[in-house]
Amino acid sequence: MVSERDMKYVMCMAAAGLLTAPAFGQGPVSIGAAADTTLFESPTGALGSGAGATLFAGSLLNGDVRRGLVRFDVGAVVPSGATITGAFLRLNTSRAASATELVGLHRVPRAWGEGASASPGSGGGGGPAQPGDAPWIHSVFPGVLWPNPGGDFQAAASAE
Fold it and tell me: Cα separations (Å) of 125 from 2, 27, 74?
């Protein structure tokens, strides 16, 4: 477990929301996260937090990386044929290494899971991966591996 003083990452509440503005005069629509989890870099690659209340993103002072994953089911909220003219993501930061921390948003083209694992304590160290989780080496634990440890994501950030 990583101590609080060694943590250099941004911790975000899992209640992330994507706001979109579809056509046909419907106005803004709020879309809550359908799934969220954190990838915890570790020697075994088997730490998760699919059921955890928080997300972590960034790196620790020891160099270990944390990547928060959030999935939205836009099709369940936005009507077929609608045109999305804009969107924004709202994350509530509850702890950061400095007053200003940028978090890059990267598209993840591969399906990933959200299992029942939970991090003990403050949550920054992860807990043992459970079936269905997405830990560092698996997109879906225990059987489906990421092509690259740490997840399969587009290198260029869509936004910061």
Answer: 6, 41, 31
The backbone torsions φ and ψ at residue 151, rounded to the nearest 5 degrees and listed phi first, read 105, 160
Q: What span, in angstroms and rounded, lies between the C-alpha atoms of 137 and 103?
A: 22
- pTM comes to 0.80
90, β-bridge pairs: 17
Q: How far is residue 55's CA from residue 39's CA, in Å, rounded to a whole number?
A: 9
Tokens of 114: 């959200």
Give residue-wise pLDDT tens across range 116-136.
999 887 778 899 999 999 999
pLDDT at position 25, please? Answer: 57
pLDDT at 11: 36
Classify residue 95 as exposed, middle or buried by CB count within 10 Å of its CB (0-12, 13-18, 19+). middle
Tell me the backbone φ, ψ of residue 57, rounded to 5 degrees: -145, 135
